[in-house]
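hiii so um. not sure if this is the right channel but i have a protein structure encoded as tokens and i wanna go backwards to a sequence. like what aa goes where. can anyone help
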């Protein structure tokens, strides 16, 4: 089967009989499943959604690494859970937008929407089953030796039960609201991602009125999300974590007095959170209100996933399936922790947090470590930042210095995601208070950060900043900043161009690149770019920027075709790129054509890759690898050999339909030779990594790269090599 690793296939074969008996909702391989998988493999393109599931499998594979301690493994387990929640909310939600409204959708695999739904949700079931197995069989036996236990209510002694009961009575009980559904009560709106207890109770049961279906009532108790996920007992030699739902389950009779409780089932739902906005150029308060309304609608979107304990009440399940229009494909069994994101409470516990690896570096490039001011250092030479191996502090320092410098006249930047207590917002507020012109393009459609961005944008507006909330139907994803400073009789512009967000928190966890420059070839382009966004102008063309939605796809196709032309003429050629996702069909077809012309293509794609490499007659000159490890690979670097005079680009865009057609994005060409060589070196080391790397096979599976000689772990290498060799590295 193409959708799981050989080890996972073996596991499901070994436990197949057991799993069939266990639950009707657990994944059961079938001849039809095998046939669908075989048909999918024949396609020249790999399904975007199935490719994403492969990425989450690679994240889960980190939990199997013997080098990692259990808290690092918990971190990856929690990441797979939040990843899957978002995938169900957005991608499965989007699929149901087609199914529910009878719209046609043909996946890259060639399957129509209903058939593809079964394949997709079956693959999700396989993933959930394997994740549960790893937690149960490989992690749980090691809890005690690492100084903690996850316990059940019945494990408590009398003293601890008294303590827990007091916590319930004083803290939890007042927060709980039983919600019954019957002919006199509307079916309640149950919140997505919350833990919920479904309670079947019997209203009256005597010899005169025996138990019947009419006597039963179904009600729900939602566990408030602001409660801790575990109640903690800190003993002398071990910390015990009691899931909060265990306490509520054992005390729930206090909410249902003088009636019989027949069953209590813990479950969790995911709702469709995929929404689009009307195409509208009127980007004002009405647009912000529309986004706010769409955010609220997520709480009541159609249910696309139900995770529940094994053998739930038939009475409750009949009601839920009918009410939510779900079937066995949407229902997933979880015998272990219902929500693995709660493991962050253990990972971040003061006792265990020091056991995690350092999250970032304090190293700054050598030309920023001297007595020069940051403005003089940037003016002297372009500066490449490679995060998290280089600190993000120079970028924040530049914004803070600009806010306080009386010579700075204006600051303009794009904002996609901010840290919760953002120093960048604080600096912009100071700048506005000091009379500087501040323009901030806040993208309030940044998924799941909409509320935070609206709040921060409104805060800046009140301080006098010029805030633009994007272009209605386009999402502004580019990462650019421009600072204008008066220096004597001249005005000098400084710029920052990047692949990552202006977020000091994620800069410690994501690998990204950024360029600090005062080069007019960049600053003139960026000034023109902001004029296009904030005003009503059309640029004549940029010197070093490639932008979307209009130009990026065609510009990249032209660069790919140039490599193909060189190969056909017998000249040196080659393409190497590093990005999050590759999905755009037009670009993939150009890669196939270039491969057939003899161009060697090396792709480093962290997540989704719809290109099928290594197929004879189609893509035998293309290799694809994915780097998954301690840091989220977020940098975008694109290299074209160009007959020995390489063109190297960085920026915010992946090669996806949304990046080319539905977003404001930018790629920028690196013109400084030393920086170009550094970036080529980064690409070369990504191709040499044999610790975090996986190679995509022609059938869509990923194979872990095996260490043959010296181990090369780029997530360690870039920290250790403070003085990197930046001499020209040949990729081709």
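sure thing!! here u go:
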């Amino acid at each position: 089967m193409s959708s799981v690793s050989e080890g996972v296939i073996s596991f499901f074969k070994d436990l197949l009989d057991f799993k069939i008996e266990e639950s009707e909702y657990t994944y059961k391989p079938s001849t039809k499943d095998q046939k669908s998988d075989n048909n999918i493999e024949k396609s020249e393109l790999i399904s975007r959604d199935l490719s994403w599931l492969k990425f989450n499998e690679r994240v889960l594979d980190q939990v199997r690494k013997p080098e990692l301690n259990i808290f690092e493994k918990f971190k990856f387990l929690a990441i797979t859970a939040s990843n899957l929640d978002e995938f169900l909310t957005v991608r499965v939600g989007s699929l149901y937008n087609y199914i529910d409204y009878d719209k046609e959708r043909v996946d890259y695999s060639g399957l129509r929407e209903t058939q593809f739904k079964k394949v997709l949700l079956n693959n999700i079931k396989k993933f959930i089953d394997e994740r549960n197995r790893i937690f149960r069989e490989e992690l749980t036996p090691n809890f005690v030796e690492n100084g903690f236990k996850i316990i059940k209510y019945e494990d408590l002694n009398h003293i601890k039960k008294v303590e827990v009961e007091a916590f319930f009575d004083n803290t939890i009980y007042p927060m709980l609201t039983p919600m019954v559904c019957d002919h006199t009560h509307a079916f309640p709106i149950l919140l997505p991602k919350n833990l919920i207890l479904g309670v079947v109770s019997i209203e009256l049961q005597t010899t005169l009125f025996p138990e019947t279906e009419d006597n039963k009532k179904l009600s729900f108790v939602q566990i408030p999300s602001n409660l801790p996920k575990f109640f903690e007992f800190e003993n002398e030699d071990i910390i015990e974590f009691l899931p909060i739902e265990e306490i509520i389950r054992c005390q729930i009779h206090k909410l249902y007095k003088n009636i019989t409780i027949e069953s209590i089932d813990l479950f969790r739902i995911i709702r469709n959170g995929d929404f689009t906005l009307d195409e509208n150029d009127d980007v004002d308060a009405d647009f912000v209100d529309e986004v706010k309304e769409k955010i609220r609608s997520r709480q009541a979107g159609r249910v696309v996933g139900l995770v529940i304990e094994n053998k739930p009440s038939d009475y409750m399940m009949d009601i839920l399936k009918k009410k939510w229009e779900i079937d066995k494909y949407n229902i997933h069994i979880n015998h272990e922790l219902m929500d693995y994101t709660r493991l962050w409470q253990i990972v971040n516990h003061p006792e265990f947090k020091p056991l995690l690896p350092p999250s970032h570096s304090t190293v700054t490039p050598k030309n920023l470590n001297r007595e020069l001011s940051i403005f003089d250092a940037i003016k002297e030479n372009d500066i490449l930042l490679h995060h998290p191996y280089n600190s993000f502090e120079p970028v924040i320092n530049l914004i803070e210095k600009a806010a306080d410098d009386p010579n700075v006249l204006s600051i303009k930047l794009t904002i996609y995601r901010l840290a919760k207590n953002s120093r960048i917002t604080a600096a912009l507020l100071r700048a506005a208070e000091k009379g500087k012109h501040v323009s901030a393009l806040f993208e309030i459609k940044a998924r799941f950060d909409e509320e935070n961005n609206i709040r921060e944008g409104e805060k800046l507006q009140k301080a006098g900043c010029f805030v633009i909330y994007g272009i209605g139907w386009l999402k502004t994803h580019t990462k650019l900043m421009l600072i204008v400073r008066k220096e004597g009789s001249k005005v000098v512009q400084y710029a920052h161009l990047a692949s990552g967000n202006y977020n000091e928190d994620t800069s410690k966890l994501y690998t990204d690149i950024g360029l600090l420059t005062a080069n007019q070839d960049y600053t003139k382009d960026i000034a023109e770019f902001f004029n296009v966004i904030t005003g009503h102008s059309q640029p004549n063309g940029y010197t070093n920027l490639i932008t979307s939605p209009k130009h990026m796809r065609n510009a990249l196709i032209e660069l790919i075709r140039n490599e193909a032309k060189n190969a056909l003429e017998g000249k040196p050629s080659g393409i190497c790129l590093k990005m999050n996702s590759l999905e755009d069909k037009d670009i993939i077809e150009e890669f196939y054509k270039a491969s057939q012309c003899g161009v060697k293509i090396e792709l480093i794609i962290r997540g989704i890759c719809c290109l099928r490499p290594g197929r004879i007659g189609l893509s035998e000159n293309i290799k694809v690898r994915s780097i998954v490890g301690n840091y989220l690979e977020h940098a975008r670097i694109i290299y074209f050999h160009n007959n020995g005079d390489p063109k190297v680009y960085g920026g915010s865009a992946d090669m996806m339909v949304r990046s080319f057609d539905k977003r404001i994005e930018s790629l920028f060409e690196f013109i400084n030779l030393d920086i170009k060589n550094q970036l080529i070196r980064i690409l070369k080391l990504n191709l040499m990594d044999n610790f975090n790397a996986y190679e995509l096979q022609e059938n869509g599976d990923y194979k872990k790269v095996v260490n043959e000689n010296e181990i090369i772990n780029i997530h360690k290498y870039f920290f250790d090599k403070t003085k990197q060799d930046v001499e020209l590295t040949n990729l081709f």
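oh and The chain is about 35% helix and 20% strand.
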